[in-house]
Amino acid sequence: MRFVSPLVAVLLVVAAMLAQQNTAYAVEPSLSGTVTDITTGQPVANVCVTVGPPVRCATNTKADGTYFLDMTGAPNGIQWDIRFLLGGQIKKEFLGTTVTGPTVINAQIDATGFITPPSCGAPNAATPSATSYMPNITKTLGGPTCWQTPFIVENTGTLNTTLEVSWYKFADGSCAKRINVNQGPGTSYAYIPNNDSTMPDNSQWSVVVRSYGSSVVSVVNEHQGTGTRAEAMSYDGFSGGAKSVFLPNVTRRFFG
Q1: CB atoms within 10 A of CB 186
Q2: For residue 156, how far is the Cα from the chain centroid?
Q3: Residue 56 and residue 74: Cα distance in Å, rounded?
Q4: 3-state DSSP assignment of residue 66
Q5: Cβ-based neighbour number of residue 16 at 10 Å
Q6: Which of 47, 58, 187, 251 has a CA positioned 20 to 30 A from the CA of residue 194?
Q7: Averaged pLDDT score across all residues of the chain
Q8: 125-135: buried (b, 16+ CB within 10 Å) or exposed (e) per residue?
Q9: Is residue 70 scored above 70 in pLDDT?
Q10: How far is residue 241's CA from residue 223's CA, in Å, rounded to a whole number?
């Protein structure tokens, strides 16, 4: 029978403990990858990566297009909805992705016009199929946890349509940003102001959506606060308006 010296025994125990620690660390879930432009292949910085509902960025890509999200503590084998947003728009999504240990998800997205604020060129001169007005769209208005108003525009028709989305500044009514988005029947364009790095914080705009090709409806979701202080409400975008307003009952110190 062979005997192991005390020193060798200690070394074997330490090696076993280190192996167990390394194994435990290796299986902790995490997400990482690289986001590149689908046309040029160049890395895209400041892409918002969301896990679950696309409300807040879990992390953002760095200058070289890479990202890393430590999910230590989350169970392995859980399915997550992973989305990549740029300019407040969902550019790529991997729904029901199973994350077990270090998981790599690379994404190719169309980053054209979203790295810097798209210029406000002349609007489309054609007559739109439908128009939707959203009079008060905000980004971190009042502070980081204060008012933001994501909105959704859905193509309710049976034909493809091009949405011309224009943001107008509250201060002077000038155009701050204008983009064109193609939407198929039954699909929606979703915009989340807090995830749009091209627009300034603590700001508000009036947004006009003109649809060229199909009917659309829009919904604005207002959010403010966190936890027990969270508030929310929704309203539909307006398809028309008027220059005259009637106020049927205006009072001052009524009965006192």
Answers
A1: 10
A2: 22
A3: 18
A4: strand
A5: 10
A6: 187
A7: 85
A8: eeebbbbbebb
A9: yes
A10: 25
**CA gap 190, 174 in Å, rounded:** 23
Place of tokens 């240990």: 101
Which pLDDT score, from 0 to 100, does residue 153 have? Answer: 96
**What pLDDT shows up at residue 228?**
79
196 contacts 207 by C-beta, under 8 angstroms: no
Which residues have C-beta within 8 Å of that of residue 33, sequence separation ≥ 6? 66, 67, 104, 105, 106, 107
Poorest-confidence range of 54-63, 79-88, 235-244? Answer: 235-244
Tell me the two tokens of residue 234.
């929704």
Domains of the chain with CATH codes: 30-109 (2.60.40.1120), 130-236 (2.60.290.11)
Q: Single out the residue of 203, 89, 104 nearest to residue 152, CA to CA.
A: 89
The answer, yes or no, to whether residue 157 has pLDDT greater than 80, is: yes
- Cα angle 172, 177, 180; round to 5: 140
Q: Which regions of the chain does DSSP assign to beta strands (E)? A: 30-37, 48-51, 59-60, 66-70, 78-86, 89-99, 102-104, 107-109, 130-139, 151-155, 161-169, 175-183, 188-191, 203-212, 216-224, 231-236
pTM given for the model: 0.56
Q: How far apart are CA 208 and CA 123, in angstroms?
A: 11
**Alpha-carbon span 186 to 113, nearest angstrom:** 25
d(CA 138, CA 58): 21
